[in-house]
Amino acid sequence: MRAIWSGSIGFGLVNIPVKLYSATQSSKLDLDMLDKRGHANIRYARINANTGKEVAWENIVKGYKYHDDYVVLTDDDFEKVSPRKSKMIDISEFVDEDKIESTFYETPYYMEPTKGGEKAYVLLREALKHHHKVAVGEFILRNRENLCILKPLGDVLLLQKIRFAEEIRDYADLDIPKDITLKPAEVKMAGALINQLTPKRFSLDKYKDTYDEELMKIIEAKAKGKKITQPKFKIVHNKSKDLMSQLKASLDTGTHTRKKAS
Amino acid sequence: MDITKTINGKKLTFSNLDKIYWPEEGYTKEDVIDYYNAIYPHIIKYMKDRPESLYRTPNGIKEKGFFHKDAGLAAPKWVKYLPLYSESAEKEINYIICNDKPTLLYLANLGCIEMNPWNSTIHDLDKPDYFVLDLDPSEKNTFQQVIETARVIKEILDKAGATSYPKTSGATGIHIYVPLGARYSYEQAKDFAHLIAMRTQELLPEFTSLERSLSKRGKNKIYIDYLQNRKGQTLSCAYSLRPKPGAPVSTPLEWKEVKKGLEPTDFTFENILKRIEKKGDLFKGTLLKGIDMLKCINRLS
């Protein structure tokens, strides 16, 4: 695993040097977009909506639509609001974890103590376990301020990014009925159903993303089908043939020029 | 310990010279600056007029370094820089152009143990002077396999009629450069490199791979990296020091040296100057006459 951030947890007078690692990975199949004819990769281009022509990166700016007109922002403007550089996860308070709704939860990261932080790391983890609390803190990642909680997860301390309150929507607009009375028998029946579907030992491992699995089966079957007609090295060779003719075409059309006198 | 010196009329302050960069060997920041001071006449040929990606390791080789973007503005006034749009940073950043000794030493003082210039120059930023194949072995590969892969690449390039120049990466791999004479686009350079990489992989399927994703590549495959031939991608240049144990230098080789017995750690900042004295600059061909790509392809097909 590669650390994505390194710094320290700070609370009171104690600093615990740590590294952060992503706790999650995408399990989605990596599919490429291709041209049906010849399987060339599709690339993105940035097009001027008026002229239909491609725009070079150096001519692209970012703007915000403000009263029907665009306010263009420059690097200086972004610089002005970017937070001071900090390598610190500042713990401000401790709280019972169930005080934080799951709607607040964002990406989880594992924390690893670095040199000199081992003991304090274990101490913080055990103290949190013992008191059933999580720590609430702030830190700066990729130039943005982030809110997080630190909580013990087995042997590791987990840093769970959480959303700011202003990012959570209100559901007052939804039509949720308030004045419905339930009969005791109905509640009892629903309860019985819940009990029936509650296993003695629960494990999320048994839930699999079967869509990708099925898709992979199809891919493998299709790839195998090809192999019958063409040995594997041939497939590769065709790919290099495609590339070769594509490159040849680009060279033939004279898209290269002589080196400018310098 | 800070020292201010005037070099070629440019005032430069060197800081923390006694900072240990290689704890096991005891080499310091001052050793790095001394090295670049001595290697300047050779390395500058491969840095001149090229935007420089600053990879800084100011705490020595045991700590991960970082890429310092937009270094131009913070530099002293006499340091040359060029504002360019960086796709990865999604904004215009000011790249330092290192054309003289004071600038090189300024970079060394920032904690740049290695030097990472672009493949193209400011004379035509869209046309690389060469393309590179970067052989990057995995944990379980032997250096002998890296050598074998390099030799296969050389064979294919010979068949294509393309001259090629190998150098140690300074870490565990080998870089192979093919001069293009700034006549082709990055896209064409990358495609041609890809083609050579594919041919190589077909011949050595057991221990080479073009798979970019580490997890899919497996631990016993050498990655033939042809993707360094994109605008703004950089490798450590010839004669660059590397932040690795033993203070190795990315060292140009003769093809006849690329054989059993060669070790990636053979060349360090302690013996490189003597070697240049004896062998001369083996890399100057990379900046001379480029290949004719179309002819090369025709010879391959």
- Count the domains of chain B: 2
Radius of gyration of chain A: 28 Å
Structural class of chain B: alpha+beta
Query: What's the helical proportion of residues of chain B?
Result: 25-40%
By CATH, the topology of the domain at 5-25 and 79-167 in chain A is Ku70, Chain: A, Domain 2
Describe this structure in words.
Chain A is built from five helices and nine strands; from the N terminus they run ββββαββαβββααα. By secondary structure, chain A is an alpha+beta fold. Among the domains of chain A are: 5-25 and 79-167, Ku70, Chain: A, Domain 2 (Beta Barrel), CATH 2.40.290.10; 184-198 and 207-254, no CATH class. In chain A, the strands form two sheets. Chain A has a seven-stranded mixed barrel with strand order 1-2-6-9-8-7-5. A two-stranded antiparallel sheet of chain A has the order 3-4. In chain A, a hairpin with a 2-residue loop joins strand 7 and strand 8. The relative contact order of chain A is 0.12. Chain B has 301 residues and is α+β, with helices and mostly antiparallel strands. Chain B folds into two domains: 3-109, DNA primase, PRIM domain; 130-300, DNA primase, PRIM domain (Alpha-Beta Complex). Helix content of chain B is 27%, strand content 21%. Chain B has seven helices and 14 strands. Chain B has helices at 29-43, 101-109, 143-160, 186-203, 214-217, 272-279, 293-300; strands spanning 3-7, 10-14, 20-22, 27-28, 51-56, 66-68, 81-86, 91-97, 116-117, 130-136, 165-168, 174-179, 208-209, 222-225. In chain B, strands 5, 6, 7, 8 and 9 form a five-stranded antiparallel beta sheet that branches. A five-stranded mixed beta sheet of chain B has the order 11-12-10-14-13. In chain B, strands 1-2 form a two-stranded antiparallel sheet. In chain B, helix 3 packs across helix 7. In chain B, 46% of the residues are buried. The model of chain B has no long low-confidence stretch (mean pLDDT 92).
